[in-house]
Amino acid sequence: MKLSELKTGQSGIIIKVSGHGGFRKRIIEMGFISGKRVEVLLNAPLRDPVKYKIMGYEVSLRHSEADLIEVLPDHEETHSEIQTETLHGLKCNDHAPLSDKMKEALKQKRHTINVALVGNPNCGKTSLFNFASGAHERVGNYSGVTVDAKYGWAEFEGYRFELVDLPGTYSLSAYSPEELYVRKQLVEKTPDVVINVIDASNLERNLYLTTQLIDMHLRMVCALNMFDETEQRGDHIDHQKLSELFGVPMVPTVFTTGRGVDQLFREIIATYEGQEDSQPNFRHVHINHGHELEHGIDEIQEHLKQEADLRQKYSTRYLAIKLLENDAEVEKIISRLPDAKEIIEHRNQAAARVKEETGNDSETAVMDAKYGFIHGALKEAEYSTGRQKDTYRTTHVIDAVLTNRYLGFPIFLLLLLLMFSATFTLGQYPMDWIEAGVEWLGNLISETLPDGPIKDMLIDGVVGGVGAVIVFLPQILILYFFISYMEDCGYMARAAFIMDKLMHKMGLHGKSFIPLIMGFGCNVPAIMSTRTIESRRSRLVTMLILPMMSCSARVPIYIMITGSFFALKYRSLVMLSLYLIGIIMAVVLSRLFTKTVAKGEDTPFVMELPPYRFPTWKAIGRHTWEKGKQYLKKMGGIILVASIIVWALGYFPIPDNPDMGKQERQEQSYIGKLGHTIEPLFKAQGFDWKLDMGLLAGVGAKEIVASTLGVLYSNNDSFSDDNDFNDEGGKYEILHRQITAEVARENGISYKEAEPIATLTAYCFLLFVLLYFPCVATIAAIKGETGSWRWALFAAGYTTALAWIVSAAVFQIGRLFI
Ligand code: GDP
Ligand code: MG
């Protein structure tokens, strides 16, 4: 009996709650748990909602919701008994003991599981049905549709399985009557558990239906049928792993012989009995459909969630995905809603974006995403087959190379090297132009404005500081272009895949790799993007190690220092070494953190491998620009302000003696005093006070390190005549010259002798910049995401300590050889 059929004053014991996972979870959270007694306080026909009393609380449900709750009514058992109780004013409540008869009836009802068989044609559904139900079957022709469904039952370990053998379908789209019929059955008949029969000899295609069933958020068990065939053929699949990744139990079966059927039934019972959240072999996964689609799904869901009737019947995520697939049936359902227009508008916007980005319609994009999920899961479950029958052949052939056990990693490194070399060499030309522009601007100000602090501020502060950073814009855009290209063409997912094994060794999983890659752009959005990581522990550790990723803000200082200290052919290598050291540090720290400060277990998940495609120029252009824009914004904000502050600290107080040399004057200034005060802190690294100030200023944002050095080392020629240095090394030669001269003076050696030491100092400086305190914004983001200052301060502290130790060690060891 349904709960909605109980009348006012009646009560019953809850047997089960049907419906999709989201609905069930909500209802169960309200207290409608099987075995509990519920009493109807007020049920007026045709009037919503109905008032119930459960576990001492009053709750309201809609009729349609109460339709999905099955109860065993108290009055059915023995009518007289209830009547006497009511007569004596003893209302039924939770504590009223169950009679033995009642217990027995409850158990019987409770132990009946409605099971629907779903799968592709010829995967073995009917074979299972016949094997399990033996003679107990009847054929039904269902409500107006000319599609057959067979009903039967089977008994196993005290449970009764009511089986329905549904027609075979490849998908759950609205194209064929069979598909619509199966969909309708699943939504309207609300089976307790779905058996998804999978032809394991054709895994990839069969799993497509599985991904759609996952979208529907049903309780499900998969039978990997025809397992005998796969074994004969020599296929390999780690079905345990596959099961973890899909969040669904998967049992190898052979329905012609009955192999695996017991195990399958046991899994069904476990799934049925389990409270979804606490059950280890069931986890509702969201198949990631890529940024644009997911954005569309979110927006559509936002509207659908307002619709109580709809929301209780369907998973809103499923409806949103179906809408994006232009599903006519779902469109019909949506068209009845008050905000149908807005919903369709969101759908169209998302579809247009997808079209623009991929050149595909959203229907294809959804399909690609699902195959990407399957492909990734199969790859991770080490699937291999003797026979190749393949819709995404090109992708698989390319993947065979790019994710190859031996080739994948070298190719990845080679691509990184290529990316950085191109960034340097191609970036050189526009960089020269911008530089000429900055110089021209400086000269213009110098000629037109009268002498005074304003002029000095503009030239040395604004143009010197911002100019030192803005010249890197082309290089940053080129870098972002490569990253965007790799993301959009599908390679980034492979890079993540290649790294997955390594990530597991780090105690993380591949999903953490995406934020880490994003960290190369900017740590702040990368920290936000860790939200997609399911396990809290992995998420925390990912955030903690993210500062090790060289964000774009560090690029100007890398380029500045490598450009002035290293010959052209070594520059890419030096850069690469920094990136790699960051990565290695991240590995080591992650291992350390997962064993100490953030212990816990791991959640499996799928790394999607979407098909390769040529990204559209428009999409790449936009993604590159979106990233570059943030860089420019920062330039006008914090960097401008910081440059002026650094300049002012270096300019004031105005000395009494106007003929004082620039170098001397700087030393007398506030910044000089501050710099000299903290100088002893960095003795072990051989940094001079200007470098120290750069580091101090960089706490605000790492670009400020470059702009500060730009200000501090601007136009000082007091050393340039003291040596035989020939000026061919480019624009940051001044940095090179001054640092080297400083080292020479400090150690009382010649300029020539000082050069290797200065180079070592410069490299240690780079190491320090790589490792130390990321920036205020990153620390704030960690605070925001972890919700505690503790982790934010921990990140700030450990990075700085690490930077100090590593750079000091490298310098001291290096000095032994120089
Ligand atoms: P349905 O279309 O999903 O109902 O599939 P059927 O149950 O009608 O099975 C299709 C064919 O596959 C039949 O010839 C079955 O005998 C065969 N079959 C079913 N299960 C297995 C299995 O596990 N191994 C093998 N080798 N054949 C199977
Ligand atoms: Mg059949």
UniProtKB/TrEMBL annotation:
<feature type="binding site">
    <location>
        <begin position="254"/>
        <end position="256"/>
    </location>
    <ligand>
        <name>GTP</name>
    </ligand>
</feature>
<keyword id="KW-0547">Nucleotide-binding</keyword>
<keyword id="KW-0406">Ion transport</keyword>
<feature type="domain" description="FeoB-type G">
    <location>
        <begin position="112"/>
        <end position="274"/>
    </location>
</feature>
<dbReference type="Pfam" id="PF17910">
    <property type="entry name" value="FeoB_Cyto"/>
</dbReference>
<dbReference type="GO" id="GO:0005886">
    <property type="term" value="C:plasma membrane"/>
</dbReference>
<feature type="transmembrane region" description="Helical">
    <location>
        <begin position="462"/>
        <end position="483"/>
    </location>
</feature>
<keyword id="KW-0408">Iron</keyword>
<feature type="transmembrane region" description="Helical">
    <location>
        <begin position="406"/>
        <end position="426"/>
    </location>
</feature>
<keyword id="KW-1003">Cell membrane</keyword>
<keyword id="KW-0479">Metal-binding</keyword>
<feature type="binding site">
    <location>
        <position position="130"/>
    </location>
    <ligand>
        <name>Mg(2+)</name>
    </ligand>
</feature>
<dbReference type="Pfam" id="PF02421">
    <property type="entry name" value="FeoB_N"/>
</dbReference>
<feature type="transmembrane region" description="Helical">
    <location>
        <begin position="573"/>
        <end position="593"/>
    </location>
</feature>
<dbReference type="Pfam" id="PF07670">
    <property type="entry name" value="Gate"/>
</dbReference>
<dbReference type="Pfam" id="PF07664">
    <property type="entry name" value="FeoB_C"/>
</dbReference>
<dbReference type="InterPro" id="IPR007167">
    <property type="entry name" value="Fe-transptr_FeoA-like"/>
</dbReference>
<feature type="transmembrane region" description="Helical">
    <location>
        <begin position="760"/>
        <end position="782"/>
    </location>
</feature>
<dbReference type="InterPro" id="IPR030389">
    <property type="entry name" value="G_FEOB_dom"/>
</dbReference>
<dbReference type="InterPro" id="IPR041069">
    <property type="entry name" value="FeoB_Cyto"/>
</dbReference>
<dbReference type="InterPro" id="IPR003373">
    <property type="entry name" value="Fe2_transport_prot-B"/>
</dbReference>
<feature type="binding site">
    <location>
        <begin position="144"/>
        <end position="148"/>
    </location>
    <ligand>
        <name>GTP</name>
    </ligand>
</feature>
<feature type="binding site">
    <location>
        <begin position="225"/>
        <end position="228"/>
    </location>
    <ligand>
        <name>GTP</name>
    </ligand>
</feature>
<keyword id="KW-0410">Iron transport</keyword>
<feature type="binding site">
    <location>
        <begin position="119"/>
        <end position="126"/>
    </location>
    <ligand>
        <name>GTP</name>
    </ligand>
</feature>
<dbReference type="InterPro" id="IPR008988">
    <property type="entry name" value="Transcriptional_repressor_C"/>
</dbReference>
<dbReference type="InterPro" id="IPR038157">
    <property type="entry name" value="FeoA_core_dom"/>
</dbReference>
<dbReference type="InterPro" id="IPR050860">
    <property type="entry name" value="FeoB_GTPase"/>
</dbReference>
<dbReference type="InterPro" id="IPR011642">
    <property type="entry name" value="Gate_dom"/>
</dbReference>
<dbReference type="InterPro" id="IPR005225">
    <property type="entry name" value="Small_GTP-bd"/>
</dbReference>
<comment type="function">
    <text>Probable transporter of a GTP-driven Fe(2+) uptake system.</text>
</comment>
<keyword id="KW-0472">Membrane</keyword>
<dbReference type="GO" id="GO:0015093">
    <property type="term" value="F:ferrous iron transmembrane transporter activity"/>
</dbReference>
<feature type="binding site">
    <location>
        <position position="133"/>
    </location>
    <ligand>
        <name>Mg(2+)</name>
    </ligand>
</feature>
<keyword id="KW-0813">Transport</keyword>
<comment type="similarity">
    <text>Belongs to the TRAFAC class TrmE-Era-EngA-EngB-Septin-like GTPase superfamily. FeoB GTPase (TC 9.A.8) family.</text>
</comment>
<dbReference type="Pfam" id="PF04023">
    <property type="entry name" value="FeoA"/>
</dbReference>
<keyword id="KW-0812">Transmembrane</keyword>
<feature type="transmembrane region" description="Helical">
    <location>
        <begin position="791"/>
        <end position="813"/>
    </location>
</feature>
<dbReference type="InterPro" id="IPR011640">
    <property type="entry name" value="Fe2_transport_prot_B_C"/>
</dbReference>
<protein>
    <recommendedName>
        <fullName>Ferrous iron transport protein B</fullName>
    </recommendedName>
</protein>
<dbReference type="InterPro" id="IPR027417">
    <property type="entry name" value="P-loop_NTPase"/>
</dbReference>
